[in-house]
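ping. complex inputs:
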Amino acid sequence: MSGTSLDALNAMTAADFVAALGAIYEHSPWVAEAVVARRPFASLAALHEAMSDTVRAAGDARQRALLVAHPDLAGKAARAGTLTADSKLEQGSAGLDRLNDDEFDTIHRLNGAYAVKFGFPFIVCVRRHGKDSIFRQLERRLGNDPAQEFATALDEVVRIGALRLDAHVRAPDKLPVQGRLSTHVLDTQAGRPAQGVAFELHELSAHGEGRLVARGATNADGRTDTPPIAGRPVPIATYELRFAIGAYFKARGVALADPPFLDIVPLRFAIAEPEGHYHVPLVATPWSFSTYRGS
Amino acid sequence: MSGTSLDALNAMTAADFVAALGAIYEHSPWVAEAVVARRPFASLAALHEAMSDTVRAAGDARQRALLVAHPDLAGKAARAGTLTADSKLEQGSAGLDRLNDDEFDTIHRLNGAYAVKFGFPFIVCVRRHGKDSIFRQLERRLGNDPAQEFATALDEVVRIGALRLDAHVRAPDKLPVQGRLSTHVLDTQAGRPAQGVAFELHELSAHGEGRLVARGATNADGRTDTPPIAGRPVPIATYELRFAIGAYFKARGVALADPPFLDIVPLRFAIAEPEGHYHVPLVATPWSFSTYRGS
Amino acid sequence: MSGTSLDALNAMTAADFVAALGAIYEHSPWVAEAVVARRPFASLAALHEAMSDTVRAAGDARQRALLVAHPDLAGKAARAGTLTADSKLEQGSAGLDRLNDDEFDTIHRLNGAYAVKFGFPFIVCVRRHGKDSIFRQLERRLGNDPAQEFATALDEVVRIGALRLDAHVRAPDKLPVQGRLSTHVLDTQAGRPAQGVAFELHELSAHGEGRLVARGATNADGRTDTPPIAGRPVPIATYELRFAIGAYFKARGVALADPPFLDIVPLRFAIAEPEGHYHVPLVATPWSFSTYRGS
Amino acid sequence: MSGTSLDALNAMTAADFVAALGAIYEHSPWVAEAVVARRPFASLAALHEAMSDTVRAAGDARQRALLVAHPDLAGKAARAGTLTADSKLEQGSAGLDRLNDDEFDTIHRLNGAYAVKFGFPFIVCVRRHGKDSIFRQLERRLGNDPAQEFATALDEVVRIGALRLDAHVRAPDKLPVQGRLSTHVLDTQAGRPAQGVAFELHELSAHGEGRLVARGATNADGRTDTPPIAGRPVPIATYELRFAIGAYFKARGVALADPPFLDIVPLRFAIAEPEGHYHVPLVATPWSFSTYRGS
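pong. complex structure:
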C-alpha cells in the first residue's frame, strides 16, 4: 500500500481504491468505500477531509464499532503478533513493544479499567507521544465522562488516519502532521559554527531507562545534516540533547581544565506540540553555555 | 582534639602539644615533637609550614615510614574498623565506604598493583576528590616512576596534614584549603531574582549511581542561604545542579506549555580546583536558560 | 547644617532645632517648629514621619504657600543665583544648570503654562530624575486636573524633604531613598572575572548630548570598587554602560579580527525605580555578549 | 554595459568585447584586448582569472600606468564630475561623496602625501570599506615601503576588477566577492520568533555622524525578508543594529516598567571580512538580551 500516488488513486477502480485505503481507518474499509464516488480529489487534504467527515458523520453505532475495532495498546494482539501492519509500526514507535514488567502491568491494569468504564479500548495516536506521555494520557482520560471521552477517542482515530494517509499516499501537498526538532552548535569562543560536535538525543522516562532517539555530529555549519527528528510528529516527551563539547574544544587545541569545566552538556526540554518546529541550539564556550527555543 | 586554639597550643606543655597534634600526620607524632621547641607560632600558616618542612626534611627512611603508616584506601582497615578517626571521616567523605562490588574489586586490585610497584600504600587527599577522581588518580599514578610517585605521595600527605590542621585548630588565619560552590537563579522573564526554586546538587559517577550532595530552595535574592559546598575543598568531580524551574514559573502563574518546555533544568559541570571559588548561576525564562562560570 | 546627629537634634534648644531643620521644607521653618515638642525622635524615620505628617495635615492655605515657596526649575532664581543651597545642588544634579537654548526655552514655556494652570511652580524631586525625565514629568503633569496635581506636588515636596533629611542628619537608620546601579564583567572565554575592563556610564538624552556619569575599570573580581551609582537615588533615565572589551581581550593576548568583532560594547537600559537595586552585568567573549537585570 | 551575459561576451566581435569590458580596469582597455583571443570562457571565474593574470604579468611600466589611471579618492575628478561611471558609484558607496570639511581636508592631505611618496594615487576597493576604514587604510599604507605598496595597490585594482565583472556580467557562476549580514530576533519570554520588531542598521563613524544603511521590521519568522546587507561586500566598518524591542513587547501587551528597562537595544559590532557571512541575532526578554556571531 505504501507510496500510491494521489493521481493513481483518482484513476483506479473503486475496488482497488478501497483495497488501497481500506486500512487507513482500522478494520473499517467502509470509510474508503464512502468516498469512492467523490473522486477525483484535488489534494491529499481534500481526501483526508472527505474520509474524516465520513467518520464524524457516521452516527454513534458505526463510530463505536470503529473504536472497538482498535487493538489494546501493548495488549494481547501485540503479544500474539496479530496487529495490523500500521498498528504494529505505531506501537513500536513509542517503545510500547519494549515495556518492562512494571510498565506492562500498569498499562494492562489501566487498559482494563478504561475498557470497563467506556466500553471500547483506549486509543491514542501513539506517534504523537513518547512512552511516558501515553501513560499520562491514559491516566488523564480515565477521568473523562463518557461523552467527552467518546469525542476524544474519535479525534485520535482521525489523527491516526491523517498520519496513515500522509505515510501511504504521495501527493503534491502534505498534511500538517509533521513536526521537526533541529539543533545548531555555535562556538562563541572562536566566533564560528562548531563542527564535529558529537551529540545524542535521548527520550527520557520517569519510570525507567530513556532511549536513544538519534546520534551524530555537527557539520561545517554547526548543524546536523538531517534534523534529529523530522518528517514525522515530534512525540510529546522529555528529551535530553547531549553534546560532547569538551572533546570538541580539546580537538581544537583549546587549553582546558582537568577535568574540563564542561564536557558532556545536556540540554533537557520537553515537547508539547508534536507538529511544531522546535529549534534547540547550543551556544557555548569552554566555560559557559546557553540555549533557547528558536525557530 | 577538635577545636584547640592556636593560643592554647602555644601555651600548653610539650606533652600536651604532641598529644594534640600527633595525629595530624598519620601515626607519626614525631612531626609534632620536632616543632614543639619552635613555639610560639604566630599563625596557623606558620605552624603548618613548620610541620610540613619537618616532613620534607626528614630523609628517605622516615618519609617512607610515614607513607607506609597510611591505611589502604577502602582496604582491610576500613572493613575492620581500625582506621584512625581522621582517616575514617576522610574515606567516608568521598563515598569510599559505599563502594559496590565492582568498585571494591577494582580498587583492591589497583591498590595491590600499586603497593607491589612502589612499596607503600596509595595515598591521596580524599577530601579533594570525588569517587571517580580517586579511581582516575590511582590509575594515572600507577604509571609514574618510583621517584616521581614518592614525591607525589608526600605532597598528598602534606595536603592531608593541612586539612587536618585546618579542621582541628582554631586560629585567626585560615589555610588556603577551602573552596566554594555557589549558585544563583535569575528570572529574566520577570527581571528579578527567582525565589523558591527547588534545587539539588548531585555528584555524578561514570561507574554507577551518583549521590546527592545538597538540596534546598533559593531565597529572596535568588541565592542559597549557604552555598551548596563551602568551608571545605570542592571535590574534583562531575556535578549536576538541577533546578525545578517549571514548578517555579507555574507557581508564579506563568502560562506554560503542557508539558512545560523547561521543567527540571540540569547544569552539568566539573570541578578541577578544589580550592577554587565556583559560581554557577542559572539565568532562565520558561523558554531559555544560560549558565557560566562566575565568581 | 550638614551632618548633625539625631542625638544632637534631640538635645539642642528649640531655636537651634528649627535653625538646623528649617530648610528641609523650602522656606518653611514652620514645619520644623511644629515638631520641636515631639522630641526625642527614636529614629530618622520617625522624624521624617512627623515632619511629613505636619505638611500633609497643614490645610490647603499653608500647603499652597509651601508649594509657592519653591523656585522655578531652571528659572530666574537659578540664573540670578538666589536659589537656596539645597535647591542649587538639586537642580545641578539633573543637569538643569547646563540646558541648551532649546531646552531652556522649552522649560521656560512649560513652566509658564504650568504656573498659569495651577497657580504654583512645577515641583519635582529632581534627584530622582534625569533631565529627559523631568521634561516628560512636566509635560505629563500639565495634563492633570488641579486637585490631582496639588496632591502630586505635595508628594514631591515630601520626597524632597526625605532626601534632604537623609543628606543632613546622621542617624543609625537610613530612609529608603537610596538606589544602586552596579555592574560586573565576566570573561566566559577564560572562565574568570574580567579585570581591567575600562567602562563609562552615560546618561542619554533624546534632546541633545548625554552626559558622563561615571567611569573606571573593573577590579580583580570583575566588579567596580564602588558601584557607578550608589548612596543616592538612581535618576529615572536611559543609560548606556560602555565597556572596552576589545582592548581587554587584546591586552590578554587573544587573537582578534581586525577590527575586532566587539570593541566598545554598549548596554542601553532605563531605570524606572530610583530606589531600586539594579545590577547590569556583561558576560562576554570576543564574539558574543549578554546582559540581564540582575540583583 | 550592465548585464551582458557570458555567452554573449563569448560570441560577440572582438571590438564589442573590448567595448563591453574595457572599463573593468580603469581607463585600461588593453586588459580586455589581451584576453579576446582566449575566448570562449567557460565561467566568470575563468574570465576574471585571465584578466587579472594579464594585469599581474603586464610588467612594471604598464602596471604603473594602470595605477596612475585611477582618480584620487574624493578628489578633483569627483568634484568636477569627471569620474568614470564605476568610480562614481564606488566612491558614493562609501560615503566619500558626503565628507564634511574636516574629512575632506584630511583625505586631501593624505592623498597628497601618498602621491608624493609612491608616485600614483591611493587606490582601494572602496566597496569593501566603510568611510572610517578607508581613512585607516590610507594612514596605514602610507607607512609601507614602495615595493610593498605597489603590490598592495595592484591587489586592490584586481579586487575592483572582480567586483566590476561581478556587477556587469551575467554568468552561471558567481565570483566570491559577496558577503552577507543577517539578523534574527527571538522572544524568549514567549518562546517564539519576534515578529514586527522595527530595526535600523547604522554604520558608525569615529569622526562624525554615522549613516543609516538599512531599516525594516522582522517578519513572522523573526527574520528580515532580505538581509540588511547582501549581494555585495559587507564594508569593513563598525555597525549598530538597533531594535525597538520595548515597542515590540508593549504591542504584545506585556507589562513593562515606565520607562521600560529595554527600549531601543543597540548591538554594536565590527565587520572585518567583507566576503564573510555574519549573522547577528538578538535573543531578548523585557529584562535581558544576548547576541553572538552566528552563521
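The two ends of chain C are 35 Å apart (CA to CA).
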